[in-house]
Amino acid sequence: MKFIIAITILALVIINNSEAKVFTKCEFARTMLNAGFSKASLPNWVCLVKAESSFNSRLRGPKNPNGSHDYGIFQINDKYWCKVGSKGGDCNMNCNSFIDDNISDDIACTKIIYKRHGYNAWYGWKNKCQGSLAAYQVNECF
Ligand SMILES: *[C@@H]1O[C@H](CO)[C@@H](O)[C@H](O)[C@H]1NC(C)=O
Ligand SMILES: *[C@@H]1O[C@H](CO)[C@@H](O)[C@H](O)[C@H]1NC(C)=O
Asked: How far, in Å, is the centroid of ligand 1 from the Cα of 66?
């Protein structure tokens, strides 16, 4: 009996570890504010990340039609910005480092992408957020 309980607990720990880390809206908003983004910009980022990954920091997207993949909470594309298996791309980062729970490297790369293209770099933002941010206010988070 003890053995079975131990195995069950072990199994639950393993299952739990492989589960997606899904940020709450406010957890994400606070992380972005701490990383230097303005409060006024946060509804854009909250909407963008909801559209791209539903706040799942471990998401590796399905294969895009052109064969590329998108990584992490911001769904950063491996064609330009990062490389799979070693550092590379314009962010000089390993895409696999974008699918853990620590999003500080994702944010660093996102700053580079945003500097170059603005929010338009993300289809999720263009399709779902541009001009309709009312549902993504974050005042209750602070
Ligand atoms: C490939 O597709 C992704 C997603 O549709 C897009 O973000 C990326 O810019 C495309 N890359 C090229 C080289 O066309
Ligand atoms: C997250 O990763 C950065 C480096 O990318 C590191 O400096 C920082 O300490 C990490 N934070 C945690 C909580 O592990």
From this structure: 6
Nearest ligand 2 atom to the CA of 108 is 5
Q: Is 34 in the pocket of ligand 2 (CB under 6 A)?
A: no
pTM over 0.90: no
Neighbours of 8 (CB within 10 A): 10
Which tens digit of pLDDT belongs to each residue from 34-69? 999 999 999 999 999 999 999 999 999 999 999 999
Nearest CA owner, ligand 2 atom 5: 105
Catalytic residue among 19, 27, 52, 90: 52
Options 3.30.428.10, 1.10.530.10, 1.20.950.20, 1.20.1250.20; CATH for 21-141 is: 1.10.530.10
